[in-house]
Amino acid sequence: MITELFRGPGGWAEGLRLLGLTDIGLEWDTAACRTAHAAGHATIQTDVAQYPTGPFADRITGLIASPPCQAWSRAGKRGGLADQPLVHQAVHDLAHGRDTRAELLAQCRDERSLLAAEPMRWLYDLRPEWVCMEEVPDVLPLWKQYALHLQQWGYSTWVGVLNAADYGVPQTRQRAILIASRTRKVTAPDPTHAKSPEWDLFGECLKPWVSMAEALGWGATDRPVPTVTAGGGKTGGAEPFPTQARNALLAAQQRGAWVLHTNRDQRADGSRQTTDPHAAPAPAFTAKSGGQWVLKSRRDSPGWVAKEGPREDRRADQPAPTFTGEAHRWAWAADSPDTVRITVAEAAVLQSFRPDYPFQGTKTKQFEQVGNAVPPLLAAHVVSAVTGIPVQAPADLAAA
Question: Are residues 394 and 283 part of one domain?
Fold first, then answer.
């Protein structure tokens, strides 16, 4: 059995599917549980901090966890930062069989901060064969503390920061990762993509980072475009009447007014020819008039809060920036002052979910789930590194 703490909508579970594996997850949020169930992932709706480890004793092979990170969050008033020493203390105590969570929780400014220590309770009680954990880069010191305790128990460990774009995710999302195994030596997963790929001495080369345009199928006649509506109404359902700007964008894509091109395809007379976006490195998604589609953060929108550093606008021929739960505040823009707000399906694809992934709840809750999820492709490569099981392409998995 593989057990996942703080499942969310199922990013890790989707990654496991690419390895031919399944798990059972624990999650508190109702909308996320509904999403996971709709996607076919067994999920127990519960408070991880209250759930007993006994039912999993002698049955668990792997443990996965992406706990909340309030004590390391850069959002809001950052009151949880003062809780970091308490989280470290809780991890230390749990690693030595002492449950001091109640007294430490009483001292926390944010009651969610101590959830980052919960995986140690499960590790101490269950000693799984392997472990995978993920969080924002600032959590790296906590992962190093976990690794020291796991090493004392005979685990091989690796801790570091990975960029999701290096594993085929069309997003430069950086995450602190911990992997550990007591049955095999572990190291970081080998990247499959690079920002500037170079040929090595053996004639091999990584693939270039996947751009947003490539991932969304813009300019490709043989790939479905996932943005068929304006993204749903307030309740998350399909919106039958897309905005005028969205209709204009869709019409432009469908009639070929927007094309992918590269400098490599420039003719002698200076003109360009349309290319297959999957065969062309570093494509640029532009209008025939020369305008460039850009994904912009809606910094001036009410309630916008900077998370994980300042926002960065990205052209469509680049990977997306890091999405958070505020993904609904991002919008497409070209030369016109009009913008087209990003849809849930687009945000999901840029997290490496399939465009029809069944996110549930209101549209705000759906965006929150997308932004907080682990990218399935990154998850697959992390678990592959700790288990030795190769990542299967979705088409290969379906054939199997």
Answer: no
Contacts of 399 (CB under 8 A, 6+ apart): none
Q: Same domain for 224 and 238?
A: yes
pTM, two decimals, is 0.83
Of 284, 167, 146, nearest in space to 219 by CA: 284
| 299 and 156 within one domain | no
- The domain of 169 spans 2-193+374-399
Give per-residue pLDDT as tens, 274-309. Answer: 333 333 333 333 433 334 667 876 554 444 344 444
Domain count, the chain: 2
Q: Are residues 180 and 232 in the same domain?
A: no
Residues 386 and 350 in one domain: no
Same domain, 180 and 237: no
Q: pLDDT digits over 63-101, tens only? A: 999 998 878 877 655 667 899 999 999 999 999 999 999
By mean pLDDT, which of 43-52, 74-83, 361-370, 390-399 is the weakest? 390-399
Is the same domain home to 157 and 234?
Answer: no
User: Given this model, what pLDDT does residue 94 score?
Assistant: 98
Residue 100 lies in a domain: yes
